[in-house]
Amino acid sequence: MATPSHIAIIMDGNGRWAKSRGKQRLAGHRAGADAVERVLGYCSDAGVKYLTLYAFSTENWKRPAAEVSGLMKLFSAYLKRKLHLFKKKQVRLRVIGRRGDLSPALQKEIARAERETAGFDRQLLLAVSYGGRAEIADAARRIAEDAKAGRLDPADIDEAAFANYLYAPDVPEPELIIRTSGEMRVSNFLLWECAYSEFYITPVLWPDFDRAEFDKALAAYASRERRLGGVEAAPEGAKK
Description:
It is a single chain. The chain contains seven helices and six strands. The protein is α/β, with parallel strands linked by helices. It has one domain (6-131, 174-222): Decaprenyl diphosphate synthase-like (Undecaprenyl pyrophosphate synthetase, 3-Layer(aba) Sandwich), CATH 3.40.1180.10. The protein has a six-stranded parallel beta sheet with strand order 3-4-2-1-5-6, sandwiched between helices.
């Protein structure tokens, strides 16, 4: 069965998971953090090299201050608590997004985790204070700066050159994007990178996402014919 090298997940449904159980939303986010570790293991077993998780969007700053504060504390605690696990499992942790939006203390924790796991091949990318439009705008701004400084000839700007200015230009585009909770939208996630991604939508809420559902996503991906804008190759011996 064909296995994607890069899977990206829109982790949706933490709040609904908590509400259905009469709990506060932050309890759902804690349960969602536990799901991250499980899915990281599923990816390892399946041979997936890159896993990108949509953890906190640029739009999520509009949420109630108490929830945002709780999420930032949860993220900081997660980094501290799981750093030893990343090193044991030999997983490189990277954070993509507008880090300047985060507190200096959290930025320091991120830098430490990235530094101490930098030598590993398998990668977990967490999109924090991330937006697809923001990523494209940030890339365009840096291109303009380089062009103005004479470091880049505008005539050399093509899709490949533009992609080099994205947050993680060395990471291949995701072949498969999974969205939990059944919502049918991209939600400003990897807008440039998802041009030819396959999508798998499941009604399962993120905290309940398990190996069975992960295997369904892989099976759905394997069943699809990825032509990337081309046409299906004719079977050997068929008339052309």
